[in-house]
Specification:
Layout lengths: L12 H12 L2 H17 L2 H29 L14 H20 L4 H23 L6 H16 L4 H18 L5 H22 L1
Keywords: Membrane, Transmembrane, Transmembrane helix
Protein name: PAP2 superfamily protein
Length: 207
């Protein structure tokens, strides 16, 4: 079974751009790359960068995506983006539990404070998203949350001018989710706010 939902809407250039944006700037892509960028800023050494970065990247991105893609292929949820709110229980559980293991590994391995802060920020964002999703019965855009949160974290880590480079990417991600009708404008805006305030804000406080 395919991991994507059939799309009956005509494949216009606009729709193709939205689809490519959704795939190339998906949460798992940001979560795999962001820890490496943060680890490099702290260690400036290839070995420690790979060690700490991949612990967070694998537990925060790779392991959850394996669960999500396998579930989508079995038909447990609609696609590897898990657009149906009801299907998000297992994917969220996989994300939270896997990232928690990564957090423990970092703590036991005496990882740099910034890596602990990054994991805490990611974990908190997930927890808030879970609460909103299953108590308010509202589907927050994780694409928007992760893209916006990652941008703030990189601004704190490197330089505020990173916003000039990544800001358009965040806007493009948000637009793509609405264009594909996977989210409403409100769901995307709340997702972005979640990423900025919880993800970016907590990292700024802890790092």
């Amino acid at each position: 079974m395919s991991t994507t939902t059939p799309d009956a809407t005509p494949r216009t250039p606009r729709r193709r751009l939205a689809r490519w944006t959704t795939e190339l700037l998906a949460p798992w892509v940001w979560v795999l790359g962001l820890p490496l960028a943060v680890a490099w800023s702290v260690t400036h050494q290839p070995g420690p960068t790979l060690l700490w970065g991949l612990i967070v990247g694998i537990t925060g991105s790779v392991i959850p995506m394996v669960v999500i893609v396998r579930g989508a292929r079995r038909g447990a949820w609609d696609s590897h983006h898990v657009n149906n709110r009801e299907g998000r229980v297992v994917p969220f559980a996989a994300c939270v539990s896997s990232l928690a293991l990564g957090w423990v590994a970092l703590a036991l391995g005496d990882a740099p404070d910034q890596m602990i802060a990054l994991t805490a920020a990611m974990f908190a964002t997930l927890v808030v998203a879970v609460v909103v999703t299953f108590t308010a019965h509202w589907k927050v855009s994780m694409h928007a949350a992760v893209a916006a949160g990652a941008t703030i974290i990189l601004m704190v880590t490197y330089h505020p001018l990173i916003a000039l480079a990544l800001g358009p990417a965040v806007l493009l991600v948000c637009w793509s989710r609405v264009e594909l009708r996977d989210h409403t404008t409100a769901q995307v805006l709340i997702g972005a706010a979640l990423g900025v305030l919880v993800g970016g804000g907590l990292y700024w406080l802890l790092a």
